[in-house]
Amino acid sequence: MKADPKGVLTGAHFFDGDHACCEGALSAGCRFVAGYPITPSTEIVERIAARFPSVGGMFIQMEDEIASSIAIQGAVWGGAKAMTVTSGPGLSLMMEHIGLAAMLETPCVFVDVQRSGPSTGLPTMPAQGDMMQARWGSHGDYEIIALCPNSPQECYDLTIEAFNLAEEYRVPVMMMMDECVGHMTEKVIIPRAEEIEVTPRRFTTLKPGKYLPYQAKRNEIPPMVKAGDGYRFHVTGLTHDERGYPAMNAEAHDRCVRRLVEKIRNNARRIIRIEETDTADAEVVVVSYGITSRVAGKAIQMARADGLKVGHLRLITAWPFPERRLRTLASHVKAFVLPELNFGQMFFELQRVIEGKAACYPVAHAGGTVHDPEAIYRRIMYAARHARMREKKEVTR
Amino acid sequence: MSTTEIKFAGLGGQGVILAGIIIGRAASIYDNKYATLTQSFGPEARGSACSAQVILSDEKILYPYVTRPEVLMALSQEAFNKFLPEARDNATIIIEEELVRPKGLKPGMKVFGIPATRLAEELGRKMILNIVMVGFFTAVTKLVNYETVREAVKASVPHGTEHMNLRAYDRGYEYGQALL
Lengths: 397, 180
Known about the structure:
The complex is a heterodimer.
Chain A: E1 11-16, H1 17-28, E2 32-35, H2 42-51, E3 58-61, H3 65-77, E4 82-86, H4 88-104, E5 108-116, E6 122-126, H5 131-136, E7 145-147, H6 152-169, E8 172-178, H7 179-183, E9 185-190, H8 250-265, H9 268-271, E10 274-277, E11 284-289, H10 291-305, E12 310-315, E13 317-319, H11 323-329, E14 335-339, H12 346-354, E15 359-363, H13 373-396
Parallel strand pairs in A: 2-3, 2-4, 4-5, 5-8, 7-8, 11-12, 11-14, 14-15
Antiparallel strand pairs in A: 1-9, 5-6, 7-13, 10-12
Chain B: E1 3-11, H1 16-29, E2 34-39, E3 49-57, E4 71-74, H2 77-83, E5 92-96, E6 110-114, H3 116-122, H4 129-141, H5 146-156, H6 162-179
Parallel strand pairs in B: 1-4, 4-5, 5-6
Antiparallel strand pairs in B: 1-3, 2-3
């Protein structure tokens, strides 16, 4: 389906990432946002509050993040596309309802413009410390999708993508921005509405009485209905059967939760988006995401100028993580370097999937600003040196 | 021009961020170059020295922050004092000459001064001093051409104030040309 031209601000703009995210939501067909404004995401909701009413949308400033994260789900079950916008402290408060969205299979988008934490931390400065929370923050077993833009243009493009993935897999999608990307202003091209692909909500074609809200085979995603259309349906955070009613036994729980997990894991290859540069003959591959991918790009240029074969793998989706691709690369890459604005989050995931087949080096940073490219460069050179020394040792042995 | 780092600095309220946005917009929207603007957020953006950092480049910009500006535009003494140490030894320093006394310059630096506030008052509105500065900047740095910045001024100022702002832009540009 093509985008509704009413929400599409076609043209070349000079926007910051926050404003671009708002426009992405409008282009994607989002017409409901509930939020509790928080730095550094405030500019998103400021723009939403100004723009949404003119296209028939609605913004509600809620009493807190807990309310915001459930109001959007009410809007979705009423038929709208909806999102909420926050930063780390707010995301912490939203955790219970992220689990609820996973359990109800509510398609919705959570935007997190990451700032330095824990707790109140540095509100006006960047970090990437919420990556594991986005994945594992709510209790129980579930899967989500998380996207990491590295420019205002991608804040626009990936917000549309986030809504499309949310609809396709009926899953909460986490838009993992950071303060630097959110407050950075660059050119943003918004195409014409007929050039923007949006995924519409899949509604049932069955008649009332025949429709079962959670009837789906393994890996399948059941169609939805919306409140007021004459269907009798029930959604609950309790383990439920195909009718949506509580089913309090282990077999029903296995069916229910296994599908929540498998619909993402078994479709991971279709969902995952990465960007690879010069990895084919690389000795060292830098794995990065978000704003750090640009800083890493600078460091890679420095290392290449020294004659080192360095590749770059940028995670556009952090979750699901590109396990297969990284394992394949590990067969010829001697070392991986993963810089991030935290003390090792995606790094642990990298270590897990590489299983010791290549050396893995973190470049930790507490946040508050971005890395000095020099620090990443030094780590790349160190990784290459050590890989060569190890090889030499093996030969002499 | 391959890559140029610029810092626009002044007091909160002088319109330094808008000045940066106009130059960034001119380069990236009307001139097909790359531009990245960042600004410091936090207590220092309220009433004391505030700044916009702009990187202009022919190539995609990776590292987003300005570290050693080649051009520093200062609209207040405090901003000048705070940011001069960051500027490169051969930097172009652009000042509001009635508000900034340029002390501590390095020998390789080039200084261009304009009484932008007074010129803006003569044009009828003190608050357009930032647009006078944008015109002056365009003339003395030649980083972005006259027409493209003019387009960006038009697109960046409130509707209905274009005429006045374009006059301010031209006044600053002419003043700069006369100095060269």
